[in-house]
Amino acid sequence: MASRLWALTRPVRIYRKLQPVAKNYSNLASRPINMYSEDEIMMKELVARFSADVVAPNVKEMDRTSVMTEDVYRGLFENGIMSLEIPAEYSGVGGTFTSACLCIEEVAKVDPAVSAMVDVHNTVVNNTLSMWGSEELKERFLPSLATEYVGSFCLSEAGSGSDAFALKTTALPSTDGSHYILNGEKLWISNASQAGLFLVFANVDPSQGYKGITCFAVPRESEGLEVGPHEDKLGIRASSTCPVRFSDVKVPKENVLGDVGQGYKYAISILNEGRIGIGAQMVGLAEGCFESTMPYLFERKQFGQAIGNFQGMEMQYAEVAMEIESARLLVYNAARLKEAGLPFIKEAAMAKLKASRVAELTASKCIEWLGGVGFTKDYPAEKFYRDCKIGAIYEGTSNIQLITIAKNIKQNFQ
After folding, report:
1. pTM
2. Comparing C-alpha atoms, which of 234, 241, 232, 150 is closest to residue 187?
3. Across the strands, what pairs with 213?
4. What is the pLDDT of residues 260-273, one digit of tens each?
5. At residue 8, does pLDDT exceed 90?
6. Residue 357, number of CB atoms within 10 A of its CB
7. Which of 66, 263, 360, 412 is within CB 3.0–4.6 Å of 237 for a Cys-Cys bond?
8. How many CB atoms are closer than 10 A to CB 170?
9. How crowded is the C-beta side of 285, counted as CA atoms within 13 Å?
């Protein structure tokens, strides 16, 4: 009783009453995350048409042969899809990061393998060169990356996957300091078959550990550079993935990106961005699989009605649609944060993790909804199911994303 009386008689703090807001906030960027600028919508629609008209007719053949057709490859460059964020002065489109994600998503709706090439080239290779390349390197390579050939990002090795900075490739300086001698082997390198430029991470001083890691721009024609045969993969088969070997490759000191010994910082930074691109790819995959499956649910009849009208089915596809939308919002929230110059590492990890999980869920459910035909190559769901698994592996495994998320959360409480 005494405690209740104390509560009733203690001094009451008077807060100032909120007043009506008279300010005009119409100029603030308060629009929904999934509302885009005219340029972003235009790019999204152009890429959607290209994907339907050029990519779609080649999907089955490219998956069967593990080779991207020339008309798809050349068409990507001719339509500006390989220079999405490259500034106009270097022959690029000069779009936003969000527009790049929208394009990656649209291509993935039709073929995630082609989308993988578009994503790695734009969000990782082009942006690394744009951010840390000297003016000379940008003038030399960006126009070709925009119009002629793809690039590769050479970080992973046999003993350095998630532990990326355990790499063994070396780039020892010459005695006169004019060049570096590159030796080592990279594995699982995307775009390697077609690449005209390789951004190679190597250690200039192994005694310094990761602080010796440096990024080099290495042209394909460099003597001693050898691209191995492409891997025979489960999914995204038309996206080339190859080992790349460097045997006494001579790299001029002018080909160093940024500062010597800062390569580890550049790799971390660009992969944080790249994860948003992978999230967009996985969202596109989920959407493509879902949209190609749903019509069947209203064509297929059992027990006198379309299977899509059964309540049990309605609950399932409603749930999947909600998951896809959730993943999409995470991806584009992270993209807008990145564009605004705000912290986005945690949000990027969440976007990639969620989107990769949703892609797996969607592809699996779509095969179940299709029944027996879903288990054949007659419907796209089978390929989407094989393609989706890579989302939990490349540019940071799911466990790495969880660790990154947890690390960022702990900072607020410790």
Report:
1. 0.93
2. 241
3. 203
4. 999 999 999 999 99
5. no
6. 18
7. 66
8. 17
9. 35
